[in-house]
Amino acid sequence: MRCPLAAVLVFLALSGGANAQVFEYQGWVGYEVEDDPDFGCRMSKGAGGDLHLVAYGNGQEGFGIGVVKGSWDLSASRPIYGSLTFDRVHTHMLEGRVENSKLVMFESHGEEGGLAAPFAGSGSIEISLEGIRLKAELDGSSRALTMLYQCADQYAKRSYSLSDVSAGLSTEEIYISSKGPSASIVELNGVGTDNATLQARVSDVGAREYCERDPGGMTTAYGGSLTLEQCVQQTINADFAANLFASADCSRGLLKDASGRTLQYVGKDEFGTARWFDLDAREEIGSCGACNDAASTSQFEAMCPLFDR
What we know:
Layout: H1 5-15, E1 21-25, E2 28-32, E3 41-46, E4 51-57, E5 63-69, E6 80-86, E7 90-100, E8 103-108, H2 116-121, E9 124-129, E10 132-137, H3 141-159, E11 173-175, E12 182-189, E13 196-201, H4 204-213, H5 228-236, E14 244-249, E15 254-256, E16 262-268, E17 274-278, E18 283-284, H6 293-303
Antiparallel strand pairs: 1-2, 2-3, 3-4, 4-5, 5-8, 6-7, 6-9, 7-8, 9-10, 11-12, 12-13, 13-14, 14-15, 15-16, 16-17, 17-18
């Protein structure tokens, strides 16, 4: 079956042509917005002919309503003015932005008088701009809006860079213990989900930094018998170094750390340091060097970078 031209135009206008459909609900079809720095999603609903009603949402309370018209060839160099009326009573006069040649958006950012609440709570909408009038029913819009924000939330979690995960480490490293070497992440799956996992191994860089620091006094520089290079090779070849594994349920703040402990996040202390409760030992981990709490936190943050602590 051939896809109608109008549907192709709407897809290109909403997603940039790269991202697939994410959800569909009561006539609304949702897409991620390609290369959006706020990781937003848009959804559209047919409003007759080549007209489509559009809504946009992101995780920073950004929300907008817009119109796609397949026959438009708009220029971004001039302002677009229009009116939005909910339930034929509440009218908003707004200046829109030409998002692309076929899409105009009217946006709000969670401020008083924004568009999200009337969109979710109204039964109909009328939009007038550029000599056209769009009329659409908003049945199911409240649930569709929830799905739109869920789309944006998952988009952000999946796209989040590891560059801000663990201060003091490279973007691909975690701590495995309070005094031990750092480890390089070799596989990271399900970031931000209830089934996030990582695998890591001690690299030459991590082993070398550990041996130069030498907390165990193994090298000749600290009274031991090993040269620096012998210490590095011994650390890399240690049984624990080759295959480190951790998992997390990001929604619940649960962590199975690389040492095998099952930990529950319980908040922050007065210094802003994460606190963990050991579910196996039935006790809270203290903030001390031997407690490995910072190591566990680095592992959790690699898997759950957007966890709200």
